Amino acid sequence: MTETILxxxxxxxxxxxxxxxxxxxxxxxxxxxxxxxxxxxEAIKALNIAGYQVIVVSNQSGVARGxxxxxxxxxxxxxxxxxxxxxxxxxxxxxFCPYYPNAVVERYRADHxxxxxxxxxxxxAARELNLDLTRSFLIGDRETDIxxxxxxxxxxxxxxxxxLFSFLKSITPNGPISMCDFS
Length: 183
Ligand SMILES: [Mg+2]
Fold this sequence. Notes:
The protein is of the alpha/beta class and 183 residues long. The protein has a single domain (10-132, 150-179), classed as 3-Layer(aba) Sandwich (Rossmann fold), CATH 3.40.50. Helix content is 32%, strand content 13%. It has helices spanning 2-7, 40-49, 70-84, 120-129, 143-152, 164-171; strands at residues 12-15, 53-59, 93-97, 137-140, 155-158. The protein has a five-stranded parallel β-sheet with strand order 3-2-1-4-5. The radius of gyration is 16 Å and the shape is globular. It starts with a helix and ends in a 12-residue tail after the last helix. The site of magnesium ion has 8 residues, from loops.
């Protein structure tokens, strides 16, 4: 029984980070500038309850541009995890791509297959975490997010609203998420 459950592929909600989970202040990396997008913790909690793996897929070209280090990205992500805890919300994994074709920092200079609009980050997460892409979707705030989703064969939703939880309910009107109400 246990083995059967472990073998099951799980659906995932892929979330872009900056502009979807936290306010995009322009290459956000300083914890003192961190601010949740309204409704983000509630949306993530709803996805947790509905059985989605919540996976962050984020381009972080600021690393390639020499603005901050990979370690700063990890610390910022850790801060997001810690800030979600009081809400009972959980991100299952963070993926980020530090590469950029016109990088200032030479070792990050590449048109990398994991940099959105390429689908590499989504595909790697699916492999490593045994995700079922046929039941997965992505939310991003840029066209390149949606293009990456399409290239990976999943639905991408362009978030242009001001509340992520309201947006999530609007795109899943008949889904389990519509049943969640934390207000
Ligand atoms: Mg974004």
